[in-house]
């Protein structure tokens, strides 16, 4: 374990928060994460910096050559042509050395960057393949894409350019200043005359930048929140005439952000503009030539030496700007490294050391308890058996734990108490590939890939024939809709195939049916289906349950009246269990739910009649 890794283990990743101590902890974590992620490139970066030092030293040689040639040309007596040509030769060689060494340095760092990006992306993909499926329910695809593409890309400049360019930006003036001091210590001080003023002012300006940036970030978050709120509820807002109020909330957030930004940046811009004058090339040129004139008049230095020191001085602005830009880039890279490290540190799903194979198609929940955060328990002592070839329906109010319980079967998460068994084997003892050959699922939020409709269905069985795909689509009652697409089954999703929510759901169901897993979990599988499609889907599923165990979640009680058993959940506990008619006769919670459901549908019929 590297020193960076050891240090990182002692720093807990901090979430975004306005508290200064939280921000400081996050900044420390990000900094250590950056050190750890860049560790594989350190040796090559150091080698590249040595090449750049050589290039920087060679960059100063032309300045020295100008001074020496000037001395030769201005000296009394005949010009020593051989010495002049020798100096020219040395300058040309130095320029060649600078070009070759500088090019070699950048080549080394670019190769290091390519290797690092490839390594990080492979690590991320490997990590994603081992994360619990439940993690993807709480993490948007945008976040994953940002990590793989943007955050890894944020490290490019730091690895491929920053180290080499910083070395060059700092080393070239240092070598040049050393030469100035060699000529005369007064020339060395004159070359630096205005720089301390700029550095002092710039440091003062940045004294509370972190706190101010946090304020601005929170302002942007508030603006984003009001935009999302308005867009998400635009229909409701317009219906009830609240458009002005919704706009006002956004305007207030924008105005507050604008005022905070102007309050912070206004003085900074003015002071920074004034301070930047001290490192502008014309100002440095004027200061050095004016001071040099004084030195020459005083007899301390020769005019040609003033010319050499002035040429060195005008390299300083580029150095300051390069270092300043690299500092900004490093701060961005540290934030990206922190996000990448948090992803890489996400606990992976433990793999069994001695994988077992399910013996049949049964599912058993044995005193199951579950908590997402380790503090608030979502499921309490749930015991339930799903016999092979039966349909079990989970019903209950929102937040009762239906979806959580269902997703424990395909092991989206691991239970915190008890066990979930498939075919008599704890799902934690079944290899993922084997588990998903036994358990298929259709989620409430359908995910279709940007590939052909046929390939989307074929995901459940890569070697399926066209006839198999069509049969699955017909069973899911989506075949006729697919034939209406411009290219039929070859139509590409979101290009020439645009499905409604219910249609996308049926494509997803076709995919699960084609996979032909002996156990099927349907989480709100008919949530977006119209009544006719819902009845057709339920009929298709009923024909296909022979030898298959089905666990279905539905709010529409009418769709699960023929289930072999209905399980009623409330607050993470089983409160009723039985067949539809038996539960109605008991007159308890399910009977009341059914009464409310049928009354609602009767009212709907009266309204739409």
UniProtKB/TrEMBL annotation:
UniProt-listed Gene3D superfamilies: ABC transporter type 1, transmembrane domain, P-loop containing nucleotide triphosphate hydrolases
GO CC annotations, alphabetized: plasma membrane
One Pfam family, short name: ABC_tran
Start and end residues of each stretch annotated as Disordered: 1-22
Topology versus the membrane: Multi-pass membrane protein
TM region(s), chain numbering: 50-69, 84-112, 155-179, 185-205, 277-296, 302-325
InterPro entries: AAA+_ATPase, ABC1_TM_dom, ABC1_TM_sf, ABC_transporter-like_ATP-bd, ABC_transporter-like_CS, P-loop_NTPase, Type_1_exporter
Superkingdom of origin organism: Bacteria
ABC transmembrane type-1 domain ranges (all copies): 53-261
Keywords assigned: ATP-binding, Cell inner membrane, Cell membrane, Membrane, Nucleotide-binding, Translocase, Transmembrane, Transmembrane helix, Transport
Residue span, ABC transporter domain: 363-596
Subcellular location field: Cell inner membrane
PROSITE patterns for this protein: ABC_TM1F, ABC_TRANSPORTER_1, ABC_TRANSPORTER_2
A GO molecular-function annotation: ATP hydrolysis activity
Primary localization: membrane
UniProt key word Membrane: yes
Family listed: Belongs to the ABC transporter superfamily. Siderophore-Fe(3+) uptake transporter (SIUT) (TC 3.A.1.21) family.
Name of the protein in question: ABC transporter
Origin species: Mycolicibacterium pulveris
Lineage: Bacteria, Bacillati, Actinomycetota, Actinomycetes, Mycobacteriales
């Amino acid at each position: 374990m590297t020193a960076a890794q050891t240090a990182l283990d002692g720093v807990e990743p901090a979430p975004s928060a306005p508290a200064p101590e939280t921000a400081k902890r996050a900044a420390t974590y990000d900094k250590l994460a950056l050190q750890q992620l860049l560790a594989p490139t350190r040796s090559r970066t150091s080698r590249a910096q040595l090449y750049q030092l050589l290039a920087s030293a060679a960059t100063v040689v032309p300045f020295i050559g100008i001074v020496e040639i000037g001395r030769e040309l201005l000296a009394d007596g005949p010009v020593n042509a051989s010495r002049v040509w020798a100096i020219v030769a040395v300058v040309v060689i130095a320029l060649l050395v600078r070009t070759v060494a500088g090019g070699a340095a950048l080549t080394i760092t670019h190769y290091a960057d390519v290797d690092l990006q490839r390594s990080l992306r492979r690590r991320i993909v490997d990590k994603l393949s081992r994360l619990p499926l439940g993690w993807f329910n709480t993490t948007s695809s945008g976040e994953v894409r940002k990590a793989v593409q943007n955050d890894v890309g944020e490290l490019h400049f730091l690895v491929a350019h920053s180290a080499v360019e910083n070395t060059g930006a700092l080393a070239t003036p240092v070598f040049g200043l050393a030469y100035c001091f060699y000529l005369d210590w007064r020339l060395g001080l004159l070359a630096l005359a205005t720089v301390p003023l700029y550095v002092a002012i710039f440091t003062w300006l940045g004294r509370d930048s972190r706190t101010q940036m946090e304020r601005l970030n929170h302002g942007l978050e508030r603006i984003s929140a009001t935009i999302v709120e308005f867009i998400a509820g635009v229909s409701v807002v317009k219906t009830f005439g609240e458009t002005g109020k919704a706009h006002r909330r956004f305007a207030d957030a924008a105005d507050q952000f604008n005022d905070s930004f102007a309050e912070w940046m206004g003085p900074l811009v003015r002071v920074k503009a004034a301070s930047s004058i001290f490192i502008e090339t014309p100002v440095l040129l004027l200061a050095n030539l004016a001071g040099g004139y004084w030195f020459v008049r005083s007899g301390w230095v020769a005019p040609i030496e003033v010319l050499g020191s002035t040429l060195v001085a005008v390299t300083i602005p580029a150095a300051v700007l390069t270092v300043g830009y690299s500092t900004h880039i490093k701060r961005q890279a540290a934030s990206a490294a922190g996000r990448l490290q948090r992803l890489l540190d996400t606990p992976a799903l433990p793999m069994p050391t001695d994988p077992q194979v399910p013996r049949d198609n049964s599912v058993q929940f044995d005193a199951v308890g579950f908590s997402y955060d380790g503090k608030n328990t979502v499921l309490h002592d749930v015991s339930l058996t799903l016999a092979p070839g039966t349909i079990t329906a989970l019903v209950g109010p929102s937040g009762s734990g239906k979806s959580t319980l269902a997703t424990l079967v395909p092991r989206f998460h691991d239970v915190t108490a008890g066990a979930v068994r498939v075919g008599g084997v704890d799902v934690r003892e079944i290899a993922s590939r084997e588990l998903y050959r036994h358990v298929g699922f259709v989620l409430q939020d359908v995910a279709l890939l940007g590939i052909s409709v046929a390939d989307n269905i074929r995901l459940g069985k890569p070697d399926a024939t066209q006839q198999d795909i069509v049969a699955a689509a017909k069973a899911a009652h989506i075949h006729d809709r697919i034939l209406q697409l411009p290219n039929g089954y070859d139509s590409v999703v979101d290009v020439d195939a645009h499905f409604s929510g219910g249609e996308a759901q049926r494509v997803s169901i076709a995919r699960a049916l084609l996979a032909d897993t002996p156990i099927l979990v349907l989480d709100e599988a008919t949530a977006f289906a119209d009544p006719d499609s819902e009845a057709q889907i339920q009929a298709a599923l009923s024909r296909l349950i022979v030898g298959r165990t089905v666990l279905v979640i539905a709010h529409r009680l009418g769709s699960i009246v023929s289930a072999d058993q209905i399980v009623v959940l409330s607050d993470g506990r089983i409160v009723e269990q039985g067949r539809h008619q038996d539960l109605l006769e008991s007159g308890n919670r399910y009977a009341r739910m059914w009464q409310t459901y049928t009354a609602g549908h009767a009212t709907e019929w009266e309204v739409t009649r």
